[in-house]
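Sample intake — Cell division protein ZapA
Collected from: [Anoxybacillus] calidus
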Amino acid sequence: MSEQQKVRINVEIYGQQYTIVGTESSSHIRLVASIVDDKMREISAKNPHLDINKLAVLTAVNIVHDYLKLKEDYNRLLHDIKKEKDERLND
């Protein structure tokens, strides 16, 4: 999808309606909203007395944590692949 083609999608996250505008496909935007909704519900189930603002911040912290761990894993895999490739070239 090009930079100029913006999609406007209505989604529900944790019982609230949001309009999200972006250049990704509507299915991608819905998936992102679904993941955020699932994470908020997961955290809320463990901490039912959290107000919505704290719940949103904890959700963001958890999602960024997951992202950083995946990024570390990805970088480690790239490093391992490069190392293995270099070893093969030196044999």
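Post-analysis note: The first helix runs from residue 26 to 46.
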